[in-house]
């Protein structure tokens, strides 16, 4: 799978990935065939095969592209603010904003598709680790209550996994983006002295 992530893309391929992300976010992807996708993007199947050798690999590559861009935007948002509580809130709320365009069908397709679910799970683990680092920095700076950062991050990771697996949506009716905003509020209010 690293082969897809490591492949250099041309400007046209990057544009196609952006179009694929927009299409998948809006309508999901499980129901599309490669012929459907090519027709929607007004390109040939051979153009799609230049992106990935089959639909599963294309879904994987598009999911990687989506999360890579989302991560860059989240980190840019965090870089704009100061203070531990504000950085944690900015991080989690920004994650939520990145998921706002995602339709329920897209999120359901991700949960039901192993190659896409793997990417989401990996990004969820990385996000939970990033929150752990932000908490540790805040505790070390005396800006946050002296909590066990690894435990707090584990709690966050558990909720993030439940969001990713669609359990929060099923139990609460909250969309993933809303759930991340609620998690940000709960976490930052609980950490402030």
UniProtKB/TrEMBL annotation:
Residue ranges annotated for the HTH tetR-type domain, each copy included = 10-70
Database matches in Pfam families: TetR_N
DNA-binding region, as residue ranges, is located at 33-52
Question: Which keywords annotate this record?
Answer: DNA-binding, Transcription, Transcription regulation
Write the protein's name: TetR/AcrR family transcriptional regulator
Q: Which species is this record about?
A: Rhodococcus artemisiae
């Amino acid at each position: 799978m690293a082969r897809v992530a490591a492949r250099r893309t041309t400007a046209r391929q990057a544009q196609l990935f952006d179009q694929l992300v927009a299409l998948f976010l809006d309508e999901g992807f499980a129901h599309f065939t490669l012929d459907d996708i090519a027709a929607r993007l007004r390109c040939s199947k051979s153009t799609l095969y230049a992106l990935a050798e089959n639909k599963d690999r294309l879904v994987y590559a598009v999911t990687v592209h989506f999360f890579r861009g989302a991560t860059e935007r989240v980190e840019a948002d965090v870089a704009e603010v100061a203070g531990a509580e504000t950085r944690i809130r900015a991080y989690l709320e920004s994650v939520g904003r990145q998921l706002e365009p995602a339709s329920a069908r897209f999120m359901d397709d991700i949960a039901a598709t192993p190659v896409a679910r793997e990417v989401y799970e990996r990004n969820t683990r990385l996000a939970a680790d990033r929150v752990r680092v932000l908490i540790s920095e805040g505790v070390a700076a005396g800006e946050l209550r002296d909590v066990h950062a690894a435990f707090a991050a584990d709690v966050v990771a558990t909720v993030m996994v439940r969001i990713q697996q669609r359990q929060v949506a099923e139990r609460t009716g909250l969309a993933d983006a809303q759930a991340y905003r609620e998690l940000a509020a709960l976490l930052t209010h609980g950490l402030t002295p």
